[in-house]
């Protein structure tokens, strides 16, 4: 007999059907708008469509459970210290929304602006990060350059000895950067969207996109039946190419596993976020006390939510060199997500060549920080049928017209 927690729980309540509030709603036969993907970006999109554009006849469909994709798997680093003006605009838009998100949603997202320190380990890093500091200041975004001693004063467990394999030559600090609780972000947006009438349908994979004689979308095929709709927003990180192929659109995306892990919980030791792009490691401490550590992407494309163990092992070596006092900690668990990356490491947000079909993807290793801003501008794009001004530079056509927004250095945890 198969062991099932759900079966046991149902037995405990006398075999009665789940109370209505515990059951996934059945999707209706038609909606004004269908959002594919109940991650943070999809849920935020539905929330802002309902809240700011009065579009409430929305279904958010997910093949798994709400927030079970990258939204619930990332290391929650939030910052806006990107290089290009277009990127600074969207990430800063998002950072401003983070600052008031808990009160906006009436849900504690545990946003904590404790500072993000990006370490420079060689002359190239120094030049790149100093360039970012200058660019950010010109854009009105906080970012400052620290000497190794100043970095150590900001983050006492950091080792800055010259004998390290990756010595710290300096660091860029964005004090307004920080972390939040990823699950809470998904749940907060979901609860607020649901309260405005949005249907969030879990265990409902989209398997096809239907189009009419004029080429415009007419609906989606799902594992729970066909749903008619005139507007579809695809926000399915890692799986965007598969979904867009259902409508005949080829995407400039590659999907990679990206891993993270946590240590056993300890008393507060890590006061800020530290990222080291050169050695592919980043670390912060959760409110439960676990050290939250992330790795670089796997070298090969894959849809596996696992990733090579050697990648995680390399990250741990780097963490132990940078923070020798963490060497004796035991790791509790590790996991992976699937991120999709574009050639310029910037997202794609906007309409597509298929009327009624919109896409938001390509956030790669760095879309958690963008969740509120991305949902906000994508909702406006869907509602108006044309890109929100902040989203406009991130259109799919930039790969045809040759206007990439190169963020390889700012986005890079590993490429
Ligand atoms: P997701 O949360 O992945 O949501 C997409 C949803 O689409 C999923 O729930 C999936 O089930 C659903 N879906 C897919 N196919 C279908 C289908 N056919 N039908 C229905 N539903 C479908 N970003 C940062 O800014 N800071 C970080 O510190 C950071 N660290 C990271 C660490 C790791 C280990 C990983 C994996 C990612 C990290 N990221 C980080 C990136 C960030 O997590 C993502 O960019 C962001 O969460 C994407 O959100 P989303 O809502 O678009 O995607
Ligand atoms: O984009 O800041 C980021 C990030 C950190 C870890 C993974 N992505």
Our estimate of the beta-strand percent is 15-25%
SSE string:
HEHEEHEHEHEEHEEEEEHEEEEHEEEHHH
What count of domains describes the coordinates? 2
Q: Helix coverage percent of residues? A: 25-40%
Briefly note the structural class of the backbone: alpha/beta
Report strand order across the widest sheet.
5-6-4-14-15-16-13-17
Output the radius of gyration: 22 Å
Q: Ends: how far apart?
A: 46 Å
- Count of DSSP E strands? 19
> How many helix segments?
11
Which CATH C-level class of the largest domain is it? Alpha Beta
- Based on Cα principal axes, name the global outline: globular
The second-level CATH architecture of the largest domain is 3-Layer(bba) Sandwich
Mean pLDDT, nearest integer?
A: 93
Bound molecules: flavin-adenine dinucleotide, pyrrole-2-carboxylate
**Regions with little confidence, pLDDT below 50 for 5+ residues:** none
Molecular structure report:
By secondary structure, this protein is an alpha/beta fold. It has two domains: 5-73 and 182-251 and 344-411, 3-Layer(bba) Sandwich (FAD/NAD(P)-binding domain), CATH 3.50.50.60; 116-175 and 254-341, D-Amino Acid Oxidase, Chain A, domain 2. The protein is 29% helix and 23% strand. It has eleven helices and 19 strands. The strands form four sheets. An eight-stranded mixed β-sheet has the order 5-6-4-14-15-16-13-17, with helices on both faces. Helix 2 (40-53) links the parallel strand 1 and strand 2 (58-61). Helix 3 (85-105) packs across helix 9. The longest helix has 21 residues, at 85-105. The protein is globular, with a radius of gyration of 22 Å. The structure holds flavin-adenine dinucleotide and pyrrole-2-carboxylate. Pyrrole-2-carboxylate binds next to loops.
């Amino acid at each position: 007999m198969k062991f099932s927690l759900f079966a046991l729980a149902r037995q405990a309540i006398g075999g009665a059907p789940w109370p209505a509030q515990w059951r996934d709603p059945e999707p209706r036969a038609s909606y004004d708008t269908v959002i594919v993907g109940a991650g943070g970006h999809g849920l935020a999109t539905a929330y802002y469509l309902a809240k700011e554009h009065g579009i409430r006849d929305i279904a958010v469909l997910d093949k798994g459970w709400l927030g079970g994709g990258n939204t619930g798997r990332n290391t929650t680093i939030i910052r806006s210290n990107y290089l290009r003006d277009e990127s600074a605009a969207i990430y800063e838009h998002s950072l401003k929304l983070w600052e008031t998100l808990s009160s906006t949603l009436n849900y504690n997202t545990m946003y904590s602006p404790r500072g993000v320190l990006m370490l420079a380990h060689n002359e190239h890093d120094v030049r790149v990060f100093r360039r970012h500091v200058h660019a950010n200041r010109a854009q009105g975004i906080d970012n400052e350059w620290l000497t190794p001693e100043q970095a150590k004063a900001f983050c006492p467990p950091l080792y800055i000895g010259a004998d390290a394999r990756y010595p710290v030559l300096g660091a860029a600090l964005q004090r307004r950067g920080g972390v939040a609780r990823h699950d809470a972000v998904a749940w907060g947006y979901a609860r607020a969207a649901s309260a405005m009438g949005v249907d969030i349908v879990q265990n409902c994979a989209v398997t096809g996109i239907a189009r009419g004689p004029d080429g415009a979308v007419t609906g989606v095929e799902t594992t729970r039946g066909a749903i008619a709709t005139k507007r579809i927003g695809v926000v399915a990180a890692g799986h965007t190419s598969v979904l867009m192929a259902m409508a005949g659109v080829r995407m400039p995306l590659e999907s990679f596993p990206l891993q993270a892990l946590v240590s056993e919980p300890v008393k507060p030791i890590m006061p800020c976020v530290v990222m080291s792009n050169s050695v592919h490691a980043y670390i912060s401490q959760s409110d439960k006390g676990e050290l939250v550590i992330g790795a670089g992407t796997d070298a090969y494309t894959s849809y596996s939510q696992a990733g090579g163990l050697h990648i995680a092992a390399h990250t741990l070596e780097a963490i132990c060199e940078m923070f020798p006092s963490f060497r004796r900690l035991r790791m509790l668990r590790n996991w992976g997500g699937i991120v999709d990356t574009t050639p310029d490491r910037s997202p794609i947000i906007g309409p597509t060549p298929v009327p009624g079909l919109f896409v938001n993807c390509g956030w790669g290793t760095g879309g958690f920080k963008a969740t509120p801003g991305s949902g906000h501008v994508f909702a406006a794009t869907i509602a108006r049928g044309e890109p929100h001004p902040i989203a406009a530079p991130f259109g799919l056509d930039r790969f045809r017209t040759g206007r990439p927004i190169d963020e390889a250095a700012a986005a890079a945890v590993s490429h």
